[in-house]
Amino acid sequence: MWAKGFERFFWDADLAKLDLERHKTFVIERILELGDEAAVRQLLATYSRLDILRVLRDARSLSPKSHGFWTLVLGNASDG
Question: What percent of the chain has pLDDT over 90?
Fold first, then answer.
């Protein structure tokens, strides 16, 4: 279930077809790159820390700045 306000981070996607589990990598990368505090809280409530660390470890769409920030906040991506 999408939280209120979450859709603004997915302006280019059809939310009716975007599955939170099947499109996990896309959702996590997008929120880590563009999300605000509320979106990140929702992300942490939706996915396990391990899921997020795995995406962070293999991220292709994150800017170096975002990748570095989230590695500091969440821990080393190789821990996942």
Answer: 72
